[in-house]
Amino acid sequence: MDRKEKSAFVNFLADVFGSTGIVLVTRNLGLTVDDVTKLRRQVREAGASYKVAKNRLATRALAGTQFEGISPLLTGPTALAWAEEPVAVAKVLVEFAKTNDKLELLGGSLGSVALDVNGVKALAELPSLDELRAKLVGMVSTPAQRIASVTQAPAGQLARVFGAYAKAGEAA
Fold it and tell me: Which domains, from first to last, does the chain contain?
């Protein structure tokens, strides 16, 4: 890399660190090209990015950002993963590290909060944003399903339901 490329890369990483929600650091000692390709694909499917970066350039880009606390993790052959939605990328990296011992999680930062390996694993155990949305939709749609099932009941059952509500209203 020449000086202009290095400067452009530092600026790119600084923009990323200024606009992302989480940055995770991994050590990828001895991963094959196929393994890295598979990992990148999984990370991309989770809505995140994964990039090998020179530690010195990444440290320069981290300066003055909320993720500055991860600078000590940048030693040896490291790679950075970042995303807006923190749980999905953490899940992908933790699962990949379980099946491939050559990928080591070092830690990361969720905003200005530094995470160690256990923190990243705990984050990976949380439900993702999509899972939480699905649960919320399920909770909201349940009363509508009950109303639909009552209105589809035969007329006799419907009359009994209305009668029960009328009696409850008179008792109150």
Answer: 3-126 (3.30.70.1730), 130-171 (no CATH)
